[in-house]
């Protein structure tokens, strides 16, 4: 492949994903976003589940929640139907990420959540899907196209989901009054840990 082709791939990827993000905020219903934030803020525990790229993004979402002291874990779709949904209790929140909103592996988990009176938040491109229609809050993703030539890899769609997750964390920090002093205590490692130690004199 010629250097020009590499350059084209790089620039087109940035352009495709930037366009998606420029248009993405308008797709999210702010009433639904507010509901999702309040459900997450009030939930004693938070679960998250998705398949493939969505599952990887949900692992990051669970970590984002833990970083602001909202107890959370990723629940593997395979493990969910073999006992892992025992993590969830009435009043907890479960977040599903599914572009089409009808991922077969997630539907049994949805049924369990409804029976256990666990609040459901669905992030999807399809508000008419089963995972959306049975949710307490629906956050709509806007996706222009994926970045590969076949428009089939989970690239732009993963970015769109991650930005929604980042927005949820930012809003939860405001909703719960989470302070960076608490982050300094739970994040002593790495360059950020060193920065926080100096700022708050954590020993």
Automatic annotation (TrEMBL):
Residues 36-178 form the SIS domain. It comes from the Bacteria. Gene3D superfamilies: Glucose-6-phosphate isomerase like protein, domain 1 (3.40.50.10490). This is SIS domain-containing protein. It comes from Laedolimicola ammoniilytica.
């Amino acid at each position: 492949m010629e250097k020009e082709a590499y350059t084209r791939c790089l620039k087109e990827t940035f352009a495709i994903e930037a366009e998606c993000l420029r248009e993405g905020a308008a797709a999210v219903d702010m009433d639904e976003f507010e509901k999702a934030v309040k459900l997450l803020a009030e939930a004693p525990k938070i679960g998250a589940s998705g398949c493939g790229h969505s599952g990887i993004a949900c692992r990051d979402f669970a970590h984002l929640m833990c970083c602001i002291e909202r107890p959370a874990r990723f629940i593997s779709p395979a493990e969910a139907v073999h006992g892992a949904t025992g993590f969830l209790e009435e009043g907890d929140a479960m977040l599903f990420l599914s572009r089409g909103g009808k991922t077969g592996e997630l539907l049994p988990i949805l049924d369990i959540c409804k029976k256990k009176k666990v609040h459901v938040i669905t992030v999807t491109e399809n508000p008419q899907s089963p995972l959306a229609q049975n949710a307490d809050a629906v956050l709509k993703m806007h996706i222009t196209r994926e970045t590969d030539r076949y428009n089939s890899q989970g690239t732009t769609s993963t970015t769109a989901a991650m930005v929604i997750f980042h927005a949820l964390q930012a809003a939860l920090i405001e909703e719960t009054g989470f302070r960076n002093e608490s982050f300094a205590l739970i994040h002593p490692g790495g360059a950020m840990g060193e920065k926080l130690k100096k700022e708050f004199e954590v020993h």
